[in-house]
Amino acid sequence: MFSGNLLSLYILHPFRTRISGHIYLACLAVFDTLSLVFYMMSFWNILVLIPYLYQRGNYDTVNLIQRHFMSQGRCELRVYLNFLFRMLSVWTVVVLSMERFLLIVSPLRFYKVLRPRLAWITMGLCALIAGLTSTPWLFSFSYVEKYQCITATSPQVSYLRCVPNEIFFASRLIECTLITIVPAVLLLVANTQIAITLSQRRKIWLRMNPPEKTDSKAVVQPDGSSAQIHALEPDSLMAEGHRTAQRSERRLTIRLFMVAVVFLVLSTPSMILVAVHTYYEYQHKKNHLRGPLADAHFISQLLFATNLAINFIIYCVTGRTFRRALWALITCRWRLVKRLRSVLETGIEDQTDENELTYRDGDQPAKKTHSKSPMSDVNSDKTRRQSQSPPELEL
After folding, report:
1. Rounded CA separation 23/101 (Å)
2. Bias regions of kind Polar residues — which residues (predicted)?
3. Closest Cα partner for 244 from 350, 315, 145?
4. What's the CA gap between 159 and 144, in Å, rounded?
């Protein structure tokens, strides 16, 4: 879980990238990792490890865990940081999807605005707002005197232990809204609109370039004002650029769709079970502590933890350059890792030969070079600028 997020952070290199989307993805890796750390402190220690140690009779370890994680001050801080990083993780996905939504729907208007500097400012504001929103968790516990879990021959020692109060139950209901319901609605709307926009562009492309049109000639404008060739002929550089842009947009759509679907599938059970448990705890009932409800609660928490670690797998499945960089890192091709990270930093489409992944550094065969005319370079560069999607679309 942790290694995948850390590898994502290393490969994306947010402090040197010129792509705002990679900053959000790197921040998402950090927030997911911290969420997992505090999630393990809360869920694993309190609900899994302590009951297991009770059954084994390891009371000294139980006392140690309760003193370190359920004592005054530490209890509030642990829960506060747990929900803070969980909220930041979820809303980073929302911000990333909304940025992609703006770039797809109106690229000319937002492309020059949505830059790395704005991404850092956005993440700073998100952290500030999430920190203020999570403040009630600092006041969500009361304290009662408890005796240590001891044997009959041991001396009785008491300590203060945190117990949830009314603020805790209200905060959990608010959490269900801010971490699951609202983000889910925004993700569905944004990704649906992205899919509709890309589908409309594809239809326009197919109308302008029907499959049966194979012998089209250059069409010169009669007024001579532009004196341009029809740039969207099937064999033209512009057409190739549009096809490259379509492939990038298709990969982007698949990636965002997978992130949204995975988030909904893995987070919805947790939201439902948290609401049910909150109701039972507010009514001072204990029906949820055993039986099917307890089992469902544990399964839903496991699914939510999986959601915090699965983004790395999504990047590997949908990101060709990311997958290559990861394999080069695993096989210690450091020069190739550096080159592919540079590709991710700039957003330029990767032209690395597939065979390079099978050679060690310094062993690559010499590549053949072909002379190009200056006009060919100018036309290629102009076509790439006009037809390719923004570099944020590559991963």
Report:
1. 16
2. 386-395
3. 350
4. 8
Considering only CA atoms, give the Rg of the chain.
27
**Angle at CA 379, nearest 5°, toward 375 and 385?**
145
147: DSSP letter: E
Residue type, 228: Q
Query: In Å, what is the CA distance from 317 to each residue of 156, 199, 311?
Result: 56, 22, 10
Torsion angles phi and psi, residue 162, rounded to 5: -80, 140
17 near 29, Cβ under 8 Å? no
The predicted pLDDT at position 125 comes to 95
Rounded CA gap, 101 and 98, in Å?
A: 5
For residue 307, give both structure tokens.
């959601």
State the helix-helix crossing angle for 320-330 and 311-318, rounded to 10 degrees.
110
Consecutive H or E run containing 315: helix 311-318
> Do the beta carbons of residue 15 and residue 86 sit within 8 Å?
no
| CA–CA distance, 299 with 313 (Å, rounded to integer) | 21
Helix (H) or strand (E) holding 158: strand 158-164
Low-confidence ranges of the chain (pLDDT < 70): 1-2, 13-14, 146-159, 209-253, 256, 287-289, 345-395
Of 247, 248, 213, the C-alpha closest to 230 is 213
Q: Return d(Cα 317, Cα 128) in angstroms, integer.
A: 33
Closest CA to 315 of 247, 244, 255, 264: 255
- Which domains are delineated in the chain? 2-212+229-360+374-393 (1.20.1070.10)
Within 10 Å of residue 291's Cβ, how many Cβ atoms? 9
Judge contact between 101 and 253, C-beta under 8 A: no
Q: Which residues pair with 164 in a beta bridge?
A: 141
Query: What three-state secondary structure class fits 389?
Result: coil
User: Are 151 and 170 within 8 A, CB to CB?
Assistant: no
Q: Tell me, rounded to whole angstroms, the distance of Cα 260 from its chain centroid.
A: 10
Q: Dihedrals φ, ψ of 211, to 5°?
A: -60, -30
Q: Residue holding tokens 């060919």?
A: 376
The kind and range of the H/E element at 159 are strand 158-164
In three-state secondary structure terms, 310 is coil
CB atoms within 10 A of CB 321: 20
Angle (nearest 5°) at CA 35 between 29 and 39: 150
